[in-house]
Amino acid sequence: MSTVFIRKRSKNYIVYLEYLDKETNKKKQKNMGSYPLKRDANKRLVEIKEEIYKDELLLPNEMIIEDFILDFLEKHKINLSITTYNNYKRVCKKYIIPLLGDLKLCDIRPIHIQNYVDDLVGLLSPKTIKIHLNILNLSFKRAYRLKLIKENPVQFVEIPKIKKFKNEIYTPEDMRILLEKCRGTSLELPINIASGLGLRVSEILGLTWNNIDFNDFTITVEKITTRDEGKVILKEPKTESSVRTITAPKEIILMLKQLKKDRLAAKLKGEKSHRELIFYDKNLEPIAPDVISKKFKYFLEANNLKHIRFHDLRHSHVTMLIDAKVPIKVISERVGHSSVNTTLNIYSHALKEMDQEASDKISTTLFSDDKKMG
Question: What span, in angstroms and rounded, lies between the C-alpha atoms of 109 and 154?
Answer without folding.
Answer: 9
